[in-house]
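Q&A log
Question type: sequence-to-structure
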Amino acid sequence: MALVTERIKTEVKEIVYDFFADECEVNKSEISDQTNIINDLDGDSLMFLELIEIFKKKYALEIELKTIGKYAIKNPVETIGQLIDMQILIIEHENRILELV
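Response status: OK
Response body:
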């Protein structure tokens, strides 16, 4: 569990934007918090898993994928902004994220 500062929030946003720009071969300037991951970027769940692994390594997170899956079922992510918000919650609460549901 970590205290999420403004610096971390900015870092998370940059990582997510860079990741989807690279993976989906779009210009980063074409991505916004309202961008729909599936409809606008042709993203998929494997990208989401890859991104989770990036954050797990970067922030030394102790969270199981099944915990994220359970959270995501009740809090589906469609847009880049929703994904960023969810990732910030994961960094902040790790396996305790299910207590937020």
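Response note: The chain has one domain: 6-100.
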